[in-house]
Amino acid sequence: MASAKPVGVITRGTTHPNRLRRCDRWLVATQARRLHAPATPPVVVDLGYGASPITTLELHERLRRLRRDIRVVGLEIDPARVADAQPVGREGLTFARGGFEIPLPSGERPLVVRAFNVLRQYAEGEVPAAWATVQGRLAADGILIDGTCDELGRLATWITVAPAGPTSLTLSWRLAGLERPSVIAERLPKALIHRNVPGEAIHAFLTDLDRSWAYAAGHAAYGVRQRFLATAAAVREAGWPLRDEPSRWRLGELTLPWSAVRPEVRRHQGP
Questions:
Q1: How far apart are CA 229 and CA 208, in angstroms?
Q2: 23 and 121 share a domain?
Q3: Rounded CA gap, 253 and 22, in Å?
Q4: Is 163 exposed, middle or buried (0-12, 13-18, 19+ CB in 10 A)?
Q5: SS3 state of residue 49
Q6: N or C: which terminal CB in the chain sees fewer CB atoms within 10 Å?
Q7: In angstroms, rounded to a whole number, what is the distance separating the alpha carbons of residues 158 and 42?
Q8: pLDDT tens digits, residue range 165-176?
Q9: Domain co-membership, 150 together with 195
């Protein structure tokens, strides 16, 4: 049953078709084993989908190609947004009113909760409590994806949070026209966006990334993708524990363990 008072505040509602495609692509490619594991149909929640349900519809379409019985639930605090979304419901897709408390029927626990551009409008100090509320509702092997992106989805970052705590940070760029990797700093999740200052790990990483990007300028003759691959290889050689392999880097995507970038972790300043 839905809570009488959903936990959270109404988001600004800004949305756009394909705005969250980078996260959806990562979810399908890297979390397939998690999504296929349950014997019963897994539930994926799109929390705070905004003024239009378009990104929830896209998530539903992409996940149903992976597993036909996946159920997607779009949650919004604003009852008007929920009412507007109801007519576009499809098989395995529903919309309901709710916030961080994730009100699902019969005690269901979601395997994935995607919350993009939701916590961005909160104070940094409010993030742990919001995470904890969602973590308490996740399935045992569930994850919360707390992300931020620009208006067109060309720059996106997200933190993966398991029931026991955050596990990784993923950064994703549209490589065409990229001037320097650190432009993504303005789209860091709320837990990190104010930490991009000297002495913080995320600042050290972005500094090293820009430096390696500059060193890899000669690869630009072979295309921006080759330059980015060389950049990623250089920061890994410098000691940053990048996850995944060049197949993900080619997409303009890098993932690090949370332990490497969490606030107040001190790192080296150069390759």
A1: 14
A2: yes
A3: 9
A4: middle
A5: coil
A6: N
A7: 21
A8: 999 999 999 999
A9: no
- HSE of 218 in the Cβ direction (CA atoms, 13 Å)? 1
| The overall pTM is greater than 0.90 | yes
Find the DSSP H helices in the chain: 21-30, 32-36, 54-66, 79-85, 127-135, 190-193, 201-215, 224-237, 246-249, 258-261
Q: Which two tokens stand for residue 154?
A: 């060309």
Higher-pLDDT residue of 180, 268? 180
Instruction: Examine the fold and report which residue of 129, 163, 197 is the final residue of a domain before the chain moves on.
Output: 163
Among 242, 95, 119, 267, CA closest to 192: 119
Q: Terminus-to-terminus CA distance in the chain, angstroms?
A: 53
- How many other CB atoms are there within 10 angstroms of residue 252's CB atom? 23
SS3 146: strand
CA–CA separation, 269 and 199 (whole Å): 9
Instruction: Give me the number of domains the chain comprises.
Output: 2
Six-digit token string for 162:
């398991």
